[in-house]
Every structure is written in C-alpha cells, then in structure tokens.
Specification:
heterodimer; A: 160 residues; alpha+beta; Ubiquitin-like (UB roll); 2 domains; five-stranded mixed sheet; B: 792 residues; Aldehyde Oxidoreductase, domain 3; Aldehyde Oxidoreductase, domain 4; seven-stranded mixed sheet; globular; binds FE2/S2 (inorganic) cluster
C-alpha cells in the first residue's frame, strides 16, 4: 500500500507492506538512517522520533499507522542554517555521546521532555530517559547535557 | 587556565556533529545495489544431533536466492582461535572445530544451522520457517563443575572431554604457596561467582559482503573493533583469500566493549555467500539474535584464599577458577581467564607468593570471550572482595589493610610473582585523592541520615590495577598469541600542509578523531583542524591490530608519534635547506621552523609545499614527498591503577539497593583529552554497576537462555546510577611509551563491581546483619534472601 507523510517538513510517500514498521520505512525507503534500531522488544529508545509532536518509538508503530502524520526525525533537528540546535549543541558541549548509536533517540526524547517540562530536575531527566538505553556514557553527561539544554547551570555537577 | 588545544585540552569532539544530526554511517546504513538479505536459522536446542536439514521446500519459496547448510561449508575452514594456552602439564589446550554453519551437531541455542539468502529479509525469514529439521536432542552441558566429571555428556565428542585446559600459574610456585597458606597466621577464604554478562553495545552486529567478478575482490563491511584482524583471520584461516583481494571496512561502529573484536561466523558467511550468489549479502542481527550469538563475557566460578601473617601482611594467594568457554573457542577466549587474569592477581599489593589454577570448560552455551576489562575485572573482584572480607574477619580498617600492603612508590619497577613487572604507580596517592573526592569524612553523617529513613548505608572502597596497552609481541608470542600486537600509523602531509593520519586503531565511541590530532598538534604546533584521522578500512590503512585492551593511545598513539617524529626530521631538513642552515639548528615553534638564535623562519606550509614542489630542494639528500609510516611494538604493558568508592542505601525490608554516590580516582598517566577520559570512566562505572546490581545472563539446566532480550536482561538505565565523581589528576606517567599514557577505557568496569558489593556488605554488616558474601548481581531478591537466612 502507499503511505504519505510529512517528514521533517517535506511530503514523502512510498510503498509499504502492512507489516512494515515506521522505523523501517524511514530507514529503508526514505534513507533517513539517523533513526536507529537497537532492539526488538521496544526497550532501547534508539528509534525515537516525533509523530504529530509526540515522542514515539518508531519500532512500535506501523508505517501504515503513520499515514498522513507529521514526522520529525533527528535529521530535522538542526537549526535552519544547519548549525546544531540548543539540544544538539548541549550534547556536544557536555560530551553526552560516545559511539553515537543511542544519540538520535536521546536527542528526540530530550526535545519531547523539554517541551513538556522546560526545567526538569536531575531526577525528572533520569526518569524521563528510562526508556532510552545508552551503553557508553553511563548517563552522567547525557543528564548534564539535558539540564544544560534547558538553560540550567550545570557547572557544579562533578567532572570535566 | 585549562589548555584549549594540544595535549591536555578538553576539546569538544568533532565526530559528534555527524552523530547528532543523523549523518553517522553505521554498517546497517550501508546498502549496496542488488543486495540480498540473509536470515540464519538457529538452533533452539542447546545440544543435539542434526539428523536432517531439508531445504527442498524452502528453496522454492518466493524470493529465495539460495539456502546454505553445513554441507556447503564442509571444505571451508572453521572459525579460528587466536590464542593457544598450554596447560599445567605442558599440553596444548583442546581446540575443537568451529564450523561456520553447524555440521552434524548443534552445540548452543543460537548455533546457526542454515542460512537463507533471499531478495528481502521477510522472504528469507519466511523461507527459513519452511526448512525441515530433525534434531535429536542430547543432554545439555551447562554447569561447569558437572561438565568435568566423568560421565558428563560431551559438547565435542571428538576431544573426549569438556575440559579445554587446566592451567597453573605459576606452576613452580605451587608448593611454596601451599606451604605459606598452611603456615599463615590467618587465611581468609571466599567462594564467588563472576556473573556471565552480555556486552550489549547498542548497535547490534551487522555485516555486508560484496564481491566483484571483474577483479575477484571481496569486500566486507562489518561492525568490528579491528577490521585488519578480521581480514587476517577470515582471509587466511577461513576462506583462503589473500589480503590484497580482501577489503574489510568497519565504518562508524556503535560501541564494542570487546564483543566486536572477534571474528564471527556471520562475517565469513556474508563474504562467502556474496561470491557464491554473485550478489551483495547483508545480515543485520536483531537484539534477540545478538543475545544468542555475540560472545558473552566473564562467567567465572572461583575459590580464593588469602594468607596473612600475624602483622596482617599478605603472604600468599591461592585460587581455583572454573572459566566458561561456551560451546566453541571464540577468538581470544583462552587468553582471558589465563594471561589477562592470572597475571593481575598481585593487584596493588606486595603479596610474594601467588598460585592461580584455571580450568576452562566447554558447555552448551554461547562462546565466552573478552568483555570490557577481560580477565582483569575477574582478578580485581576476587582480590578486592577477599581483602575486604579479611579486614572484617580481623577487625581492621579495610583501607588501612590495603595501604599496609600496597607496593610503595620507591619499589618500581616492581616485579610481581605473576610474571608482569609494573613500571610505575602510586597507590597511596590515588587513595588519598579518593578519600577527598568521595568525601569519606562525611560518610557517617550521611549514614545517620539514611538510618533516619530506615535504610542501611554502606561504603565500599577498593583498588584496582590493570595491564593495558596490549601488548609486547615477543612476550605474548611466548604466551600463546597467534598474532603480533603492535600498531601502525601512516602520517601523510599534503602539499598545502594538511595532515591525514591513517591509524590501525579503531574508534567506536572513544573519540580518536578528536584526541589523536591533539597529539600531533602539540608536536607540530599546527591547529587540530588541519589534521584528520582515517581508520577502519583496510584499503586505506595499511596495517592495524585494532582497539581493545585500552590500547589505542598507548600503542596506536605511540605509532603515530613515531611516524610524526620521522616527518619532523625530514621537514627540518627541508626547512634547513630553504633557510641555508644546518638541520641541527632548526627548532619548531607555533607551526614555524626557526633557525635557533636568529630571526629566520619558514612556515609549516612553505616546507610542505617544497616537499611536493621540489624546485629548491635537497634532492641529492632526501626524496620529495612527506609521508611516513611507523610500527610501534610496546616493550611492556601499561598499568593504570586507582581507587574507587561506592556508597549504597539498602532497604532491609525489600533488599533493594540504590547507588547513592560513586567516586573514582584513577592514575592513567598523562591525559590527552580529560573530557573524553572522564566519559570513558563514567561508561565503565555504569557497566560495572550493572554487573554488580542487575545484569546476568542465565541459562537453565536445559541450556535455554532465560535472559534473551531487554525484557529479562536488565541493562542499567539513567535512574539506576548517580552523577559520578571522577578524577585523574594523580599521574605517574608510563615510563616506556613516548606519550607516558596508560589507557583508560576499561578501568571503570574493572574497579567498580567490588566497590558496589563491598558497599552492600558494609551496609548489612554495619547494620548488624552478619553476611559474608552475596554473589552478583546483588539483586533485591538475593539480598532479601540473604537477610532472611542471616536472621534465621
Ligand atoms: S528499536 Fe525501538 S525501542 Fe529499541
Ligand atoms: S553513546 Fe553509545 S550507546 Fe549511547
């Protein structure tokens, strides 16, 4: 069947099977490979995108269900001039990523969190990111980056 | 003022920009025109005789290109093992065959039986369901101690035993160790399990095989930490493809932690099938598949005895360990419980006599190999747990007992009784630093606050040492390594002054693209932005041994320094010629070449241009061009060390443990990028906390993997860990590599598990609940059960 959706502001369509997941449509049909697949039990959050403004694990949604939806992926997160957005910049500034595999999901989840809760506490950040697994960073610098992106002073948090 | 460039600067990572914008290029992002997909039909029984694999109906399914079974690989080499261990009696280890696809028998859940190549993955999967199998199930070998009893079922019938080797180290010391333990004033004994773990890099393994009929060239894209090693092992031992006909590319790799070192059957399959099918063949592991096909880590069962004299000096250590090899020998598996574990049993202490016995055992489980730390976490955990237990038994302060037995700063180089010689260190310094950053002075106050909430608070402190910078080739050759462990680097200076470094080290999160240029910038005085790192492609980088054992900067960085030194020597000759001076008088400063004591100078770019446009050039003396290669083979391991502290809160009603504070004081020698180093420690701590509190791969008695997904294998999440206090300001530079660096990648995972477990036991015992030991993962149910038992 044919599906059409607005992805990062542009209308995109393609043929899918009934069983095609949104993440596969994004990666394989639209070649938006920034969205990653880290598990098959909807536990890891590497695949988080925004669907109509909500953070969604794109491995849990069928492409057909997203027909007509407004999708945002990590490829659409930078500023209009191509520079890093506040959240992306905070992740770089605070070394909130190592291998980068969980990063797209982390960025998308962070954007959703900060929309909902513009000044989250450490505990709120940790709680919100429970569905995003990172094996590299030990979360320290991710939590720090999220708090910094929300405009909070993180200079008193330990370490470089 | 912190530095803003060169060695010691916390420069932001350049690679982040592509990862943060979705522009990374991971293996699964690579698709080649006309590619087909492979789905592996894997065994769902742990042990069985393959009576029939009938693919006739499946072959006729839509989209199927070809179905391969073990028979197709009968003439192909098996997956090789890269390390041969010699046992106590001088006999080589047992080394059973490891076929690409199962031949005659399946030996673990996940063992690949058949491979279906089809136009789409869905078609391949559908066809695999139509393959008819007749597997006669055999009794599964799961428990290591039972596996080596006579009468046990055999994982490999042809070798007649499940014992891979029985290793003694140092065998000549055994009698003296036995004697010392017999005569000791006190002996502390501890039996413990180092739990089996799954490395779980967030990117599952992927490979894409490609073949050119035009040139007979093979290309393999793979999620590897060491593409050159894969080229060597797969080309030479499995498929018989010479290096010049085989290109292995490991592009952006989403974490490795050891499990992406090894050469896997899927890599050989995709390379082989691409030629056989004359189409690119791609495999992407699902996470469930990763759990049953990635090599696991740890899985040791150990008894350790620590002997002390009447003044509490350590006099001897004796251990007996059963180490799980799984069903086949993975690439470096035999070295992990032996040379990467036994040689570290001196820890940070002056124990004069040590004997380590390791029985490596085959079982019907996934192969076990190196996982972040590899052998060293197992050694550290034993030592630091038994020392803590000894302190409790003797009623002495655990920190004081450690300090009393430390190797002292004036004792370096320190020859341990377990072969290795530490070049440098200062364990009191890192302990002092730890006490400061962990605010141990404030512990009692925090303990009271916890008590007011009805919670027990515990403090666990421990030390660690590791051997990194793996490794001197001549030494590891004697120990059974079937490879050299040097590293190579080529530094290519372009005419306009930009530099490309081709390094055999591989970055899969460690930030080499940022940190390596800092070193060259420091040496040449030119900006980091002029320097680019190329890695992960055997067609671009001439040779390499890859990244593991915290070796990239210590070995790969040293090769880069050596090559850059050659560049400097030649560049000085060119500069001297241009300024009509003698090259001995040339000094390099801020990216310019100066004639010492004069105001004459030429810019870096003038020299590089002259090298490629040699109109005015000492052609009779040197060749045009500016490109140098160096191989660096270390003369010793490096020995990072440090002290860690963990504070936990424990709810005696539920057994739940939470990590309240965690501090790490490490001595990594010189540090190139402190921000990256701190990040490495953070990640290692989280993995160590994961091992200590929640992770564990569990097989039932039938060899079924009970923890085969993130639903039942607990990965540490953001809520499970606190902010960490880390410090690496205690520096005793490595004495034998040009940068004085030691390596930082594994420390966190090595130092943290005993800190957590020591803290849990401190919480219990100081709370009046007498418990000697709880095995990892120290889950609420285990803690609760231990409390009930102690109360009974
Ligand atoms: S891939 Fe979607 S949650 Fe893991
Ligand atoms: S940065 Fe590697 S998994 Fe998060």
């Amino acid at each position: 069947m044919k599906v059409t959706m607005t992805v990062n502001g542009a209308s995109r369509s393609g043929e899918v099977e009934g069983r095609t997941l949104l993440v596969n449509f994004l990666r394989d049909t639209l070649h938006l490979t920034g969205t990653h697949v880290g598990c098959d039990t909807s536990q890891c959050g590497a695949c988080v995108v925004h669907v109509n403004g909500q953070a969604v694990k794109s491995c849990t949604m069928l492409a057909a269900e997203a027909d007509g939806a407004e999708i945002k992926t990590v490829e659409g997160m930078a500023n209009g001039d191509g520079s890093l957005s506040t959240i992306q910049q905070a992740f770089q500034d605070h070394h909130g990523l190592q291998c980068g595999f969980c990063t797209p999901g982390m960025v998308m989840s962070t954007a959703a969190l900060l929309k909902e809760n513009p000044k989250p506490t450490e505990a709120e950040v940790r709680h919100y990111l429970e569905g995003n697994i990172c094996r590299c960073t030990g979360y320290h610098n991710i939590v720090k980056a999220v708090m910094a992106a929300s405009g909070q002073d993180v200079s008193t948090i330990a370490a470089e | 003022m912190p530095k803003d460039h060169g060695i010691g600067a916390s420069i932001k990572r350049r690679e982040d920009v592509r990862f943060l914008t979705g522009a990374g290029n991971y293996t699964d992002d690579i698709n080649i025109r006309c590619q087909a997909y492979v789905y592996f039909l894997r065994s769902d029984v742990a042990h069985g005789k393959l009576n029939k694999v009938d693919t006739s109906a499946a072959s006729k399914m839509p989209g199927v290109v070809r179905i391969f079974t073990g028979a197709d690989f009968a003439a192909v080499g098996g997956i090789p093992c890269g390390w041969q261990v010699t046992d106590r009696h001088g006999e080589p280890m047992k080394e059973p065959a490891h076929p690409v696809l199962a031949q005659g028998k399946v030996r673990h859940v996940g063992d690949p039986i058949a491979a279906v190549v089809a136009d789409t993955l869905e078609q391949a999967r559908d066809a695999a369901e139509a393959i008819e199998l007749d597997i006669q199930e055999l009794p599964a070998v799961v428990n290591m101690k039972a596996a080596v009893q006579s009468g046990s079922a055999l994982v490999h019938d042809d070798i007649g035993t499940n014992l891979c080797y029985d290793w003694g180290f140092v065998e000549e010391n055994k009698a003296a160790v036995d004697e010392a333990i017999k005569n000791a004033a006190h002996v502390t004994t501890l039996e413990l399990v180092n739990n089996r773990l799954v490395a779980n890099p967030m990117e599952p393994r992927v490979c894409v095989g490609d073949y050119s009929r035009a040139t007979d060239d093979h290309t393999l894209y793979t999620t590897s930490q060491n593409p050159h090693v894969i080229r060597l092992l797969m080309g030479a031992f499995v498929l018989g493809i010479p290096e010049h006909k085989l290109r292995v590319v490991a592009p952006d790799v989403g974490g490795g932690f050891g499990t992406k070192i090894f050469h896997y059957a899927e890599e050989a399959f995709c390379t082989f099938a691409a030629k056989a099918c004359n189409r690119p063949v791609k495999w992407t592991a699902s996470r469930s598949e990763a759990f049953m096909s990635d090599a696991h880590g740890r899985d040791h069962v150990t008894k350790i005895e620590l002997a002390l004299d009447k003044d509490n000096n350590f006099t001897a250590i004796r251990t007996e360990t059963y180490a799980n090899m799984g069903a086949y020998l993975s690439t470096f598996a035999p070295s992990v419980p032996t040379w990467l574990h036994g040689t570290l049993m001196a820890g940070n202490y002056r124990t004069p006599l040590i004997y380590v016995n390791v029985k490596a055992v085959f079982t019907n489980t996934v192969p076990v190999d190196a996982y972040r730390g590899a052998g060293r976490p197992e050694a550290t955990y034993q030592i630091e747990r038994v020392v803590d237990k000894a302190a409790r038994e003797l009623g002495v302060d655990p920190i004081a007992l450690r300090r009393q037995n430390f190797i002292k700063p004036d004792q370096y180089p320190y020859q341990t009784p377990v072969a290795v010689a530490y070049d440098t260190g200062n364990y009191d310094a890192t302990m002092d630093k730890l006490i400061e950053i962990a605010d141990l002075a404030g512990f009692e106050k925090r303990k009271k606050a916890s008590a007011a909430k009805g919670l027990l608070r515990g403090l666990g402190v421990n030390c660690y040492i590791e051997a990194c910078g793996i490794a001197p080739s001549n030494l590891v050759g004697q120990l059974g390594a079937r490879a050299g462990l040097y590293e190579s680097a080529t530094v290519r200076v372009n005419a306009t002054g930009g530099i490309v470094v081709m390094t055999g080290s591989h970055s899969h999160g460690q930030g080499h693209e940022t940190a390596f240029p800092q070193v060259i910038s420091e040496m040449l005085g030119i900006d980091e932005s002029m320097i680019e790192i190329v890695h992960g492609d055997t067609s671009k980088v001439p040779m390499g041994m890859g990244t593991y054992g915290s070796r990239s900067l210590a070995v790969g960085g040293s090769a880069m320094v050596r090559a850059t030194e050659k560049i400097l020597r030649k560049a000085k000759k060119i500069a001297a010629h241009l300024m009509e001076a003698s090259d001995g008088d040339i000094e390099v400063k801020d990216g310019r070449f100066h004639v010492a004591g004069t105001d004459k100078s030429v810019a870096w770019g003038d020299v590089t241009l002259a090298a490629y446009v040699p109109h005015n050039y000492p052609l009779e003396d040197i060749e045009p061009g500016l490109e140098e290669t160096a191989f660096y083979d270390p003369s010793n391991f490096t020995y990072p060390a440090g002290a860690y502290a963990c504070e936990v809160e424990l709810d005696p009603e539920t057994g739940r443990v939470t990590i309240e504070r965690f501090a790490a004081a490490d001595d990594f020698g010189n540090v190139v990028n402190p921000m990256i180093v701190a990040g490495q420690v953070h990640g290692g701590i989280a993995q160590g906390v994961g091992q200590a509190l929640m992770e564990g791969a569990v097989y039932d008695d039938n060899g079924q993997l009970l923890t085969g997904s993130y639903m039942d294998y607990a990965m540490p999440r953001a809520t499970d860990v606190p902010f960490y206090q880390v410090d690496h300001s205690c520096v005793t530079p490595c004495t034998h590599n040009p940068l004085g660096v030691k390596g930082c990648g594994e420390a966190g995972a090595i130092g943290s598990p005993p800190a957590v477990v020591n803290a849990v036991l401190d919480a219990l015992n100081s709370g009046g609940i007498k418990i000697d030991h709880i095995d990892m993962p120290v889950s609420p149910s285990r803690v609760w059960a231990a409390i009930q038992k102690a109360k009974a």
